[in-house]
Design goal:
Shape of chain A: globular
CATH class of chain A: Mainly Alpha
Largest sheet of chain A: 2 strands, antiparallel
Strand content of chain A: under 5%
Largest interface: A-B, 17 and 28 residues
Strand order of the largest sheet of chain A: 1-2
Structural class of chain A: mainly alpha
Strand order of the largest sheet of chain B: 6-7-8-3-9-10
Helix content of chain B: 25-40%
Oligomer: heterodimer
Largest sheet of chain B: 6 strands, mixed
CATH architecture of chain A: Orthogonal Bundle
Number of helices of chain B: 9
Radius of gyration of chain A: 25 Å
Bound molecules: adenosine-5'-triphosphate, magnesium ion
CATH topology of chain A: MetI-like fold
Radius of gyration of chain B: 18 Å
Order of helices and strands of chain A: HHHEEHHHHHHHH
Number of domains of chain A: 1
Number of helices of chain A: 11
Number of strands of chain A: 2
Chain lengths: 280, 248
């Protein structure tokens, strides 16, 4: 034990932070500041809209969430669009993970060709804008291979996000010490068995936080497929607006829906992470 | 009396890392049931040599035959070989996400395709043999270093290995835990297991070694039975080395 280690573990109390840091760092003050900022933005938008003579019609919004008609309860366009967005995102995410894993393994394979193919793919995808990629899949590859707009959307999102996902997976795999590979080899495991039973289960812990970020990112970028009119939340928003001209109310609502979904996701995963950390 | 069959036959083996020659012209034969202890200064190639024995490293020239299997990079039966040859590492290398019992069962179940119940029976049996049956359901991080190393030994034994390689199995341990691991290794030696042990624990070497090997700068400098090795080593370098480590 070095002297340094001992004196640190005895630990004098941390030096007091200066007043302004303690003040602005405390939870109630942060929440208050946050509320004030949000309030100001909302107020600014509201008065700005008033200035333009915008006619607020919030009372007409709930019908797009749910309706009670003579046949009974039915969901409105916004929840239906949300479900479509989630379906689209989940499918694209699963496919993106599969492609990402393949690319990551190619890069880690130690084969020169494999690594070259993987790096080429990553550079290509990273340097094409998402919108252009979508047009490529829908207007060029779609007609050639005969797939529809929905499939083109899934492919676009999956391919685009597979690049970052493959980097996340690679970093997670590389975070496992070489000794684990050697131990697995020394009991006769194949590379496939080693990944499946030894490496990936340990990598999950490293991958979970950045993967959540990537899911959130994917849900948000899925809105882009509204430009080819695939049925999902943003497209439904556009449709409602073209019928009602309530662009402010609907876009605020849609933004809020995205925000709520991604927040729930982040909170859920951070709980999962804590549970996982305890288990280990 | 007929000699038992050779389990490890090394002839004329060279190993390079880039242009650096880590092993030079190694010749060594280990017979069934024989205990070989390898010592030598840091960087002399001890680890590299035994890592060649289970295909964690590949030699560049010369010949290496383990239990009748020719070992070379790309050999198709290398995984069969690894099931025959157990390895215990300095840093234990247990699987931290699995319990002790699962650490012992995963090889037999996934590699040898042994049914779960039978794998568990074998695992508990070997945990008894390394004297920690009560730790079966703990995770490696909850065990002391000495206990972890004994689990690692049991993990190799569960594969029903015919040869056991040890790479400085006690040098990462606190002094008070060294003996519990060495005791297990002595008991293992008494079962007739073929063992190649890299260690500087000369008390252990005196007790179990049939053959002592001293390496320096990638070469085997001295190879002799322990009586001779400890009393009249033929090389000056070996004598100096022994003086140094026995002085402690
Ligand atoms: N992967 C590698 N790449 C390059 N050089 C290496 C590699 N592994 C080992 N070496 C070199 O080979 C030589 C022998 O290393 P080795 O680990 O076999 O020595 P050792 O006798 O086991 O030493 P120690 O007692 O420190 O464990 C050393 O000079 C080392 O630097
Ligand atoms: Mg070594």
């Amino acid at each position: 034990m070095s002297d340094l280690g001992i004196s640190r573990s005895r630990g004098q109390a941390l030096p007091k932070l200066p007043f302004h840091k303690r003040f602005f760092g405390s939870v109630p003050v942060s929440v208050a500041i946050y509320a004030i900022i949000v309030g100001l933005i909302a107020y600014g938008a509201y008065t700005g809209a008033q200035g333009m003579g915008y006619n607020w019609q919030w009372y007409r919004v709930p019908q797009f969430l749910y309706r009670n008609t003579e046949v009974g309860f039915e969901w409105g366009e916004i929840p239906i669009g949300l479900v479509a967005t989630i379906k689209l995102s989940v499918t694209a995410f699963l496919l993106a993970t599969a492609i990402g894993l393949l690319v990551a393994l190619l890069r880690l394979s130690g084969l020169v060709i494999g690594a070259a193919v993987a790096v080429g793919y990553l550079e290509l995808i990273r340097n094409i804008p998402l919108l252009v990629l979508l047009y490529l899949f829908y207007y060029v590859l779609g007609p050639i291979f005969g797939f529809d707009r929905y499939f083109a959307s899934i492919l676009t999102l999956a391919v685009f996000h597979s690049a970052l996902i493959s980097e996340i997976l690679r970093a997670g795999i590389n975070a496992i010490p070489a000794g684990q590979w050697e131990a697995a080899k020394s009991i006769g495991m194949s590379p496939y068995q080693t990944y499946l039973y030894i490496i990936l289960p340990q990598s999950v812990r490293f991958m979970l936080p950045p993967m959540t970020g990537e899911v959130v990112h994917l849900i948000k970028s899925s809105a882009i497929v509204s430009v080819i009119a695939v049925a999902e939340l943003t497209t439904f928003g556009r449709n409602i607006i073209s019928d009602t001209y309530m662009s402010f109310e609907i876009w605020f609502t849609i933004a809020l829906v995205y925000l709520v979904v991604t927040l729930i996701l982040s909170i859920g995963v951070s709980h999962l992470e804590k549970k996982y950390a305890v288990d280990q | 009396m007929t000699r038992p069959a050779p389990m490890i036959e090394v002839s004329n083996l060279d190993k390079f890392y880039g242009t650096f020659q880590a092993l030079k012209n190694i010749d060594l034969t280990v017979h069934q049931g024989e205990k070989v202890v390898i010592c030598g200064p840091s960087g002399s190639g001890k680890s590299t040599l035994i890592r060649c024995f289970n295909g964690l490293e590949w030699h560049n020239s010369g010949r290496l035959v383990i239990d009748g299997i020719e070992v070379y990079e790309g050999a198709k039966d290398i995984r069969e070989l690894r099931q025959e040859v157990g390895m215990v590492f300095q840093q234990f290398n247990l699987f931290p996400h699995l319990t002790v019992l699962e650490n012992l069962m995963i090889g037999p179940m996934k590699v040898r395709k042994i049914p779960k119940a039978q794998a568990e029976e074998t695992a508990r049996n070997y945990l008894d043999r390394v004297h920690i049956p009560e730790q079966a359901d703990k995770y490696p991080a909850q065990l002391s270093g000495g206990q972890q190393q004994r689990v690692a030994i049991a993990r190799s034994l569960c594969m029903e290995t015919r040869i056991m390689l040890f790479d400085e199995p006690t040098s990462a341990l606190d002094p008070e835990m060294i003996n519990e691991v060495l005791d297990v290794m002595v008991e293992l030696a008494e079962t007739g297991m073929t063992m190649v042990v890299v260690t500087h624990e000369m008390g252990f070497a005196r007790k179990v070694a049939d053959t002592m090997v001293f390496m320096e700068a990638g070469q085997i400098v001295e190879i002799s039975p322990p009586e001779q090795f400890f009393t009249q080593p033929s090389s000056e370098r070996c004598r100096l080395f022994l003086d140094q480590i026995l002085a402690h």
